[in-house]
Amino acid sequence: MISIPVKTPSRSYEVVIGSGLLAHAGEQLRGVLENKRAFVVTVPPVRRRWAKVLLQSLTAAGIETTLLEMPDGERAKRLSTLEKLAEKLLKLGADRGATLIALGGGVVGDVTGFLASIYMRGVDVIQVPTTVLAQVDAAIGGKTGVNLASGKNLLGTFHQPRAVLIDPAVLRTLPSREYRAGLYESLKCGVIGDAGLFKLFEDRRRELLDRDPVVLEKVIADSVRLKASVVSADEREGGLRQVLNFGHTIGHALEAETQYKLLLHGEAVAWGMIAATHIALSTDKLDSVAAGRITNSVLGFGRLPRLKLKTANIVKRLRSDKKTRQGVVHFILPREIGKVEIASDVPEAIVRSAVDEIRKLARD
Ligand SMILES: NC(=O)c1ccc[n+]([C@@H]2O[C@H](COP(=O)([O-])OP(=O)(O)OC[C@H]3O[C@@H](n4cnc5c(N)ncnc54)[C@H](O)[C@@H]3O)[C@@H](O)[C@H]2O)c1
Ligand SMILES: [Zn+2]
Questions:
Q1: Residue 201 contacts by C-beta under 8 Å, 6 or more apart in sequence?
Q2: What's the CA-to-centroid distance between 332 and ligand 2, angstroms?
Q3: CATH superfamily of 234-362
Q4: Which fold has domain 2-174?
């Protein structure tokens, strides 16, 4: 069992990681949940496979637990889902002493976290992430949110969890495309701040793709450690936290350009990392050996979905990204493996050539 602290001005908590941990959730959470009622929020695919293990463990520890379901998928990440869950909570008698437990991927985590931050002006939340993406990224750091018709994550709050429990064994039932997509976020952590983690991706790729529990636990723990340290230093994305957006500037533009239908988030980030690496190489910030290693690592995880892109459209979208400040596009660029910098002075011609590069690689 590995325990990693997150220390932010609003709250400190532990991220506990261990294969088989779900069955020991009750013991782990006894302190946090003392005299509290727990309400587990999940989606049908996760309930079918994993809810029973969690519920049995909580009940055995004497914690009164109720299960609530929400619809699956990004389409359910809407304010209307929060309202329906809140009505259910009220009917079940949940008061200010309630604790919500998010059991699922990033969608469940974001919705449940948001709901917890506003239900009765705020109750506790515990994150129990069940996708790679949620384990290495979404469940840590306290960002919550839902989508509007006009854009993703436009409503949200910061609400740090009381605890995060990560059981890599639950990833066994994750569809393989989802599994791989999440790993790109973890590879991102290696590039931005942990050369050792990056090397694990190079040296243990086969085991990782086979979901080898030992390698997986190490990769997740290293990624969590990196995210925890960034979030601890910068809870509200003042500056440092931006480094987590490596691959995301162009990744977000690709997701939007393909109407969020063609690419999973992690896959868009994979293309975005290749593009950002190309920019770093073209601006002499990164040497060609390191650039080659990053690109090969991304591509080494198998074929990414093919795309038909128009470079001009991507460039236009970059200018209108919500993270663009005063029309200036910020890129997180690798200087070496394990070190990045924020650049706001990338010439448009170089951005174009990076998009051209992925356009060629991504063609059918
Ligand atoms: N809050 C943050 O800091 C943050 C960071 C990154 C991403 N996000 C958000 O996370 C969301 C994406 O999360 P995601 O990729 O986990 O998607 P997701 O929550 O939609 O899960 C993907 C699919 O996997 C299924 N699933 C989950 N766990 C499973 C398991 N163990 N076995 C079988 N199936 C399982 C889900 O039911 C779903 O169908 C996006 O909405 C994104 O905005 C938030
Ligand atoms: Zn991401």
A1: 183, 186, 187, 190, 208, 219, 297
A2: 13
A3: Dehydroquinate synthase-like - alpha domain (1.20.1090.10)
A4: Rossmann fold (3.40.50)
State the distance from the centre of ligand 1 to the C-alpha of 282, rounded, in angstroms: 34
Helix H, strand E, coil C: the string for 260-298 is: CCCCCHHHHHHHHHHHHHHHHHHCCCCCHHHHHHHHHHH
Give the number of the atom of ligand 1 that is nearest the alpha carbon of residue 173: 32
Ligand nearest to the CA of 145: 1
Domain locations in the chain?
2-174, 234-362
> Percent helix, strand, coil in the chain (nearest 5)?
55, 15, 30
Q: Which of 15, 54, 75, 110 to mutate to test the pocket of ligand 1 (most atoms within 8 A of CB)?
A: 110
Pocket test residue of 131, 160, 184 for ligand 1, highest count of atoms within 8 A of CB: 131
Q: Is the pTM of this model over 0.85?
A: yes
pLDDT tens-digit series, residues 199-252: 999 999 999 999 999 999 999 999 999 999 999 998 887 788 899 999 999 999
